[in-house]
Amino acid sequence: MAGKPASDQDRVAKQNQDYQAPGRAVGIAAMLSLVAFTAAFMTYQSTLLVEEPAVSLPAAGSGSSRFLANQAYLAADDLLGFVEIPAGEFTMGSNPLRDRMAYENERWSANQRQGRVQLPSYFIGRFEVTNAQFAAFLEATNAAMLAQFTERLAEGSAGEASADLPVTGITLPQMLSYARWLDAQLRESASTPAALREALESGARVTLPNEAEWEKAARGADGRVFPWGMDPSQAFANFGTSGLQPVGAIACDTCSYGLADMAGNAWELTRSPLRDYPFELELDATSLLSADSLWVMRGGSYSDGINNVRTAVRGAVDPSVRNQTIGFRLAISHL
Amino acid sequence: MSVASTQSEPTTLRLSQVLGSFKLPACLTLGILLLSLVPRIAGTPILQASFWGAAGALTLWQGFMLLHLARRPALKDFAPAVYSQHYVQAMVQFSVYLYWGYYWRPVYDHLWLIAGQILFAYTFGMLLAWSRRRSYQLGFGPVPIILSTNLFLWFHDEWFYMQFVMIAVGFLGKEFVRWNREGRSVHIFNPSAFSLGFFSLILIFTGTTELTWAPEISSTLTLAPGIYTYLFAVGLIVMYFFKITLVSGAAAMTLFGFSALYAAIAGVPYFLDSEIPAAVFLGLHLLITDPSTSPRTPLGKTLFGMLYGIGVFALYTILGYFGEPTLYDKLLCVPLLNLSVIAIDRLVRRISSETVLNLWNPAWFEDRGNVAHMAVWVSVFVIMSLLGRTDAQHPGDSVPFWEESCAAGLPNACARLVSVESTYCSDNAAWACNELGAYYREGEIVAPDADLAFGYFARACELKFQAGCGNLLQEQALLRAEPLELDLRLMLRQGGKNLMGASLPELYERACRHDWAFACERGDVSAGGE
């Protein structure tokens, strides 16, 4: 052996004897450190999963005192932006003899152009629901969606003015969620106006108006073709333009019940499924289940022409539609 | 240790000779970097950064070793270690990926990431061996470890760096967590099962199970038609070559037996929609069958397999009880079983009766013991298949079955009904969302929760289910309706069949077979109308 040159294997074996390789204790410590790091890192990740994202809410009503920041950005008036519509009959549908732009689906029946509908009293929003109001709801209920919502608003580049724009691009169930949330807020709040409280305590609830409630509020008891009267006019509504405007930006002293934007700005979804007239107040299960999944919207939008901003126009969309021209307003109704 | 000797000896080695060994790890590290440029990886910045991070860590390690060698040269070498149990296992696992991926494409997308992990595993193994002053056993060893790990768990792209940590933990465990078994120092844990077990625990305890694809991996195996038969067939190859029939067979038969016993007593299946979940069936063929971490005697192997079956069975309920994902049942018990191997060996050695010891291996089998065991296993599987307990339609896959079982008050049936419908609702079956909303509004089979009910109705409504919209509008009423056509296409995909192109008569006929009474009537009308 002595005269034989040492092989590589021998050299390695010799060096292994001389060199103290990292021992098992070191190795296990390294492995456990990795495991501990993983556990700590995962714990941190789990906190990120539930952490509410930082968002900046649109500044509602900035520069004006039209909305109350401490009351979910509802309007600053005696009834928090709601207007009472008295009980009584009104004329529903269109008479082509008086309204040459009437569509076929506005006809009451085969034998009758228009119908008379009796409604109990109810409240309806003076304005369409705004971005700030909807953001307040999301802030209280759904932080993840709030982040998406505010991001979308920021992309809209409307800046601070976006707060008072009508909220659009949300689905019918999301609108109903907002209504349900506001219902609970108004019931709990000590500062809810007595008239609203009384209505809520007597069985009314915050919801979307049905078709009849919406139409009566828009045309009043005198059967107007437009909220401001019988004749077309560009002066009282945002239609045929390129974008939304803050709610109530266009004054309309002559409009029924002093409501704003009942024509144009954003289409307003109702809680009525699309069915042929005559309109029935009772929503029976059989007809609801047999109807197509389309829900009526009213009032037209900024992108429509004069024919679609009439008080009797009936549009319809499916409940999952998110469209930048479709918003809503609220009602407090016993129906 | 003599300082003089360590200083004089290295002069016999040329530095170029030492550096030569590092060509392979350097190339593999470069391979990881190159892989980071493929569109699948480069398209996600954090995934690409994960690959760079892994390559960076390996480069640092190599740099550290080279610096050390510059002062004290030592040979870093390889020892050939090509074992059939590695490459056969790897080929079988790869075939599973190919078959499964054909029906669930994310698997094919993931193959690039598996390639990166294999390069990382080889490099990590080499550097670890050389740091320990050992020759690196160059063969196919890392491949089945990586393939096996990825058959059960992989992280989403955003957290993929944890996959490299998981591999590192597996290799460190193999290197350092060892014991003396029959006079040899061997690793205690199956490397992939060790890291899978550890990480499963961490994911469960930190509530981060959603950071991985584990639920999808577990549930999409059945998208491949006849997956049980396929796994059974490839399992036979492993059984034949490596004599693990007793382990897999005992585990499968224990699970089949317990499932059947539970169903006979309770009237409902134990596992939701199978006798053995497909992922468990995969696990008992490819996860627990490492010969170095399982018992050697026939009786020991049988006990080992039975304990796996019992472990999975028990963990399924325990995890479910604590509201944790039950899919981890097959992973958590393997490290515990590995720990029990010496105890099982001891127990078997204490048995003095030759009859008992050779119960599964009588003398007349001679060398044909494993083939005989395989024959028994084949018979059992064929019988189970003929009884419709493998790939055939399972009663638990039918919603009406769970509705009836719940109405009859059978154990766990209502919870299972809610669970099944939650899955379908997540798949956008509007009918299931409306039903869930109804349960939470009624408060009969679950605690009433008006907010949750509203949420489910909202989802049903957005999916154009009129009853859901009606329920949103009228909180006092409760509207129900039959499933829509699309709902049926989503809820009848038992076995993973794509029903989107099925004709209406086919759809109703299938629904009728799944106990949807209304579909039987409509099927008649539909067929009659044609």
3D structure, described in words:
The complex is a heterodimer of chains A (335) and B (530). Helix content of chain A is 30%, strand content 13%. Chain A has 335 residues and is an alpha+beta fold. Chain A has one domain: Alpha-Beta Complex (paralog of FGE (formylglycine-generating enzyme)), CATH 3.90.1580. Chain A has a 4-stranded antiparallel β-sheet, with helices on both faces. Chain A is elongated. The model of chain A has no long low-confidence stretch (mean pLDDT 85). The longest helix of chain B is centred in the N-terminal third of the chain and has 27 residues, at 45-71. Chain B is mainly alpha-helical. Chain B has 3 domains: 8-212, no CATH class; 224-392, no CATH class; 395-492, Serine Threonine Protein Phosphatase 5, Tetratricopeptide repeat. In chain B, 66% of the residues lie in helices and 3% in strands. In chain B, helix 5 runs parallel beside helix 7 (106-131). Chain B has helices spanning 3-8, 15-20, 23-35, 39-42, 45-71, 84-103, 106-131, 142-150, 161-176, 191-205, 214-220, 227-242, 245-266, 278-286, 298-321, 329-339, 341-350, 354-357, 369-386, 399-407, 413-426, 430-442, 450-462, 466-473, 485-491, 504-513, 517-529; strands spanning 78-81, 136-139, 178-181, 184-187. In chain B, the strands form 2 sheets. Chain B has a two-stranded parallel sheet. In chain B, a hairpin with a 2-residue loop joins strand 3 and strand 4. Classes of the chains: A alpha+beta (335), B mainly alpha (530). At the A-B interface, helix 1, helix 2, helix 5 and helix 8 of A face helix 9, helix 10, helix 23 and helix 24 of B.
Indicate the overall shape of chain A. elongated
* Mean pLDDT level of chain A: 85
Structural domain tally of chain A: 1
Mass-distribution shape of chain B: globular
Q: Strand order across the biggest sheet of chain A?
A: 3-6-12-7
Strands of the largest sheet of chain B, in order across it?
A: 1-2
Rounded to an integer, what's the Rg of chain A over CA atoms?
Answer: 31 Å
What would you call the structural class of chain A? Answer: alpha+beta
Distance between the termini of chain B: 92 Å
- Indicate the radius of gyration of chain B in whole angstroms: 27 Å
